[in-house]
Amino acid sequence: MTETRCPICHQPCDPRILALAVTVTPAVATLAVRKASGWRSVDGLCPMCVATLQQEVMAQRSQNSLHSTVEPQTTFPYYHRDEERLLNQSARLPDYHTLTGAGVTMAFLDSGYYPHPDLTATPARLRNPLAWHQHPPQQWRGLLEQAELRLVEYADLTDGGERIGLHQPSLWDGAGDSWHGQMTTCVAAGNGALSGGYYRGYAPEAAIVAIKIGRGGGRIPEEDILRGLQWLLEEERWQRYGVRVVNISVGGDFPEAWQNNPVCRAAHALAQRGVFVAAAAGNRGVDELLAPAQTPTVMTVGGVEDHNRAWRSGAPEQMETLSLYHHNTGRILYGHTPIHKPEILALGRWLPAPVLPPSHVFYEMVAIDHVRRVLRGEAGDLPATLMRHAADENARPDALVVDPDHWMPEVWQGLRQRMNAHKWVHRYYQHVDGTSVAVTQVAAVAAQMVQANARLDGHSLRQLLIETALPLPHLLPRQQGVGLLQPARAVAAALRTAGGALTGFPYSGSVLRVSELQKWRLHGTLSLQEYATVGEDDRLVYFGVWLPRAVRIALVGAFNHWQPGASPLQATPGGWWHGVLRLAPGEHAYRFWVEDAAHPQGWWLRDPENPNTIESGYQDAHSLVIVE
């Protein structure tokens, strides 16, 4: 093989690793061009240089959001002029991304729904989804059906009726009351088809039973929530459709003891049957819960504000930047046991959600995106010299230099006003907030956990979510419950609970002693002979990834110069690949290099089990292990 070198540092690098430069972030790409004039992503870049450029980007970030430096303020916080985008869910709460909720059915109770492209099973069959607006609306239904919608049933129970089936006009009409249910289903189970997969939910392959409830105009009185729950309970429909998770992003009429409330009793009945039921805490910031949020067997979810920043759970100073969303709270008794609600928190602000395609807002968002890209010089309509930033160290003295964020201020002002009106973050997505979307993240992770271990019932799922949550010491316990949802850790725990495929194995990224490793029953697949001389106080790091269809897997990181074959893992009969490395004290970024039938040349992925990550300069973070 011809030796390939990084075009910036000129050090040797595997061509497969160099090729991953096509996934670097725009901010890193901009710096790379400054370091090597004429550089293009297809030229490649080694991970060491990408990491160095990413450090420069991080050093250039403002302490305060740049969205507040313009008038009118733009739609969401961001901290670097080349990073004006909303982070996706997994960048803020890392998930077990190799498990997608496949084979698990989730039921949603909401005001209405729309069969969005993000809810398809085979998005590759959608013709040019990144330009969805170019397809005539009369073709949408055919394209969606060709890509196999994951909506397995639709029940329209509004206005006292019962209209069942995916052919119902109310599913396709795109009326205003369809927006909320489209939002909740896509935040939970969307595959991000219209964003190239970036704005996906935690369960992007889960099946969905959509139950439309309420009256005209999207109003949902408590008796209609009851009707939706009763519909699931009647004739054990939940069982017929295989529903394992129920998401309720709506609330009742007035406070009432759960034992006396029919909605709470119906939700409790579902939970008693082993279904995992999750409900929104409510958004008024008061000490008051509305049905079904006060049900003891329902997991009630509040929100946290992370200011659209990447942060690390192992860094206390970064955790302290998190604040509470203004969710409702409460305390109930179940038997003689007091339960504080919400029990758990999830992201409550700046969540990406699709705009309703049949709406006029959809097309206005597309127009906003086009004008914005023209103004920033990203559409190729304007000469590069015009759009060169004033701080560009490579700018020629005689070049016409204009800061693209501050030229044509009248046009920018009008554009930002429309961006704000629609909460724009992408031509097809807007930012949303509330416990309505916080709860969907918990429900989606529960679906992943069921995929990981089908023997888990609703009570077991609830307990594992509680046990793996991240406490936030700077927030009051009665406001946060057990703390913040940890998607990766919760699913990893499900895989190790009785009946799970990884029972008996350590968590990937664990720092262990030799004696601790010897205790695990590793089915004779992990050799420790080379560490026989390691002292009892020395630390070894255990790595593993569950990919039954893989042919070869290795670790890559700075510790082996990102060489795909340098640190191979060993396979167990159940598809768990694992190995041990002795690493020096400090922080170590890493990924897995995977070869399988679909990718014989290999591809890399973040460790699904390790919630600790570090910004990599690529679209997805590196995993991080800390050796002390």
What this model shows, in words?
- The protein has 628 residues and is an alpha+beta fold.
- The protein has 19 helices and 24 strands.
- Strands 1, 2, 3, 4, 5, 6, 7, 8 and 11 form a 9-stranded mixed β-sheet that branches.
- It is globular and about 70 Å long.
Q: Report strand %.
A: 15-25%
Classified by CATH, the class of the largest domain is Alpha Beta
Class computed from helices, strands and strand pairing:
alpha+beta
Which fold name fills CATH's third level, the topology of the largest domain? Rossmann fold
What percent of residues adopt helix (DSSP H or I)?
Answer: 25-40%
Low-confidence stretches: 395-401
